[in-house]
Amino acid sequence: MSGAARPVEGEPYLAVEDLTVRFPTADGLVQAVTDLSYSVELGKTLGIVGESGSGKSVSSMAVLGLHDRRSAQITGSIKVAGTEVVGLSESKLRDLRGNAVAMIFQDALAALHPFYKIGKQLVEAYLVHHPQATKREARARAVEMLDRVGIPQPDRRVDQYPHQFSGGMRQRAMIAMGLINDPSLLIADEPTTALDVTVQAQILDLLQDLQREFNSAVVLITHDLGVVAEVADDVLVMYGGRAVEYGTCKQVLTRPEMPYTWGLLSSVPDIGADTGARMIPIPGNPPSLLAPPTGCAFHPRCAHKDKVPGDLCSTTLPELLPGSEGERHVKRCHLADPDAIFAAEVLPEIAPDLVEEPR
Ligand SMILES: Nc1ncnc2c1ncn2[C@@H]1O[C@H](COP(=O)(O)OP(=O)(O)OP(=O)(O)O)[C@@H](O)[C@H]1O
Ligand code: SF4
Ligand SMILES: [Mg+2]
Question: Which positions, given as ranges, span the membrane (predicted)?
């Protein structure tokens, strides 16, 4: 592991606390991310899930200091290896980016420059953080990285342009670029969305292998709880710019306590595909972040709000409180006994084979 930022012993490599991101626009203030806290240790993967517009990308871009200061209002704290990123100067941010922290984007075509050969782009990414290296060394490193991400004939491919690569290969090239400086923190924003299922699985395997090798901390952003179940240690569920459930994969995926997480689980297409489970999309649309609903942002779509007394769900924002699965598991919901409802109403729908027959 190299990278400018050194981990602080006993502290997570990435620690986000009370992060809030607002965009003033002509239509009003976009409340993109509100009071978001999470942490990731070296060698661990955090999956961030949520529907489109829930604040996944905006929060992750803040970690790299990628928001334009003139248009984004950012408060709270983001510490990478103990260094505060919020308010950090552009030159220090540049040093952090691509060195200690790298990001892989959803769309490789947008991230790779179409007019430059893949190798040139990799070489430049390396030389920015290794000014003492020669061009020859940088090119050798580029070929090595293309080889590591499984690109055949890397010494020939290094001289090709992005359009000469297939979609899966471009994604691999972008991963190579993200990893060329051995970042300690890798943020992968929907890295496989545009790819077919087989290539998707290969890329996820590759990310896991590389993570094990580099012992990096990984944040994987995805719509897909199935992907999270496969690769993540922890999972953070976002809704309307806030965390609504957070814990280990085991806690959140086997004993979820927030109806939105139940909805996400129900809408995973292949969970128990041959067990009689049904895929049930969450009805309704994600909330507007210009004028979010009062109370619990999920209340207009929640099928369980009538189990909460009075109009609490529509008037009062639930706090993020410990769930029954231990302190690291937190959820934002007013339901008094979510476990009983999950066992009686949700589990039979999404995984009938897991429901015990009465004796
Ligand atoms: N620069 C900006 N100015 C104004 N609003 C913005 C800006 N960037 C993002 N937003 C808004 O912030 C909200 C959160 O966006 P974000 O891109 O984080 O969603 P996401 O969870 O990553 O969604 P997706 O799954 O579609 O990628 C959205 O409502 C988006 O329109
Ligand atoms: S607080 Fe109410 S509306 Fe929100 S998820 Fe819980 S039950 Fe549903
Ligand atoms: Mg996004």
Answer: none
